[in-house]
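Query form — protein Methyltransferase domain-containing protein

QUESTION: What is the three-dimensional structure of this chain?
INPUT:
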Amino acid sequence: MTSLARRCPIALTPTANRSPGALTRPSPSATTPQRRPSHTNALYERPASWALLGDVKCQDVVDAGCGSGICSEKLAREGAKVSAFDITPEMTKLARKRCAGLDVDVREGDLAKPLDWLASDSADAILCSLALDYVEELRPVFAEFHRIARPGGRLVFSMGHPMRDWADPRTRGVADYFATNRWGLHWGGFGEPNPYVESYRRPLQDILNGLSDARWRLDRFVEPLPMAEMAVVDPEHFAELSHSPAFICVRAIK
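ANSWER: The structure tokens for Methyltransferase domain-containing protein are given below.
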């Protein structure tokens, strides 16, 4: 869901009777080489999200689902005071290493649970890059983001486009578009064997209505186009993304 990864035919897994909490993303291990740089993120999703986020100098910014700290580092180098968290211990370890010496506080935290170490009305901006696909219920997450944002604060998040996997001829029609479905696929770029990753796909209305129900005001909705540089480094994905969006990027205001 959150990468133009190498896919395989899958069977959808029911969401009922699942334990609460966010799913984990692939992470490096002793037997899995660290993933190669992602042209999809660096030249597609990340520039679009960054344009929505705007100037962060001298601002308090939360990097929710920070992964290995790529965005946290950039935020700090642009003058923000960053509170970052991720559910995966291996990722937080990488984030701390990447952000050493910068104004970044990195913790382990679950998007699906209260962010009780973050005070109400304390964040000028919240960035959640490609992490919400691993959370089954979005409304509580958006509500918690609303709690920690200052009045006038902004939320910028990106997710897999709801139609992308649904339109895949290998999976289309396997489940109801209007339901929240748990998808599984194999990701390339992490070494062999390719890790099997599960995430959630949901209808677009559930994303936007969940945002509204949490009292956020939708300010901007973007289906990004790839940067021109991708045509050189990854022409196949450039051609694909120029005609069919993989992600959505959203900005909302408290």
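ADDITIONAL NOTE: The chain has a mean pLDDT of 85.
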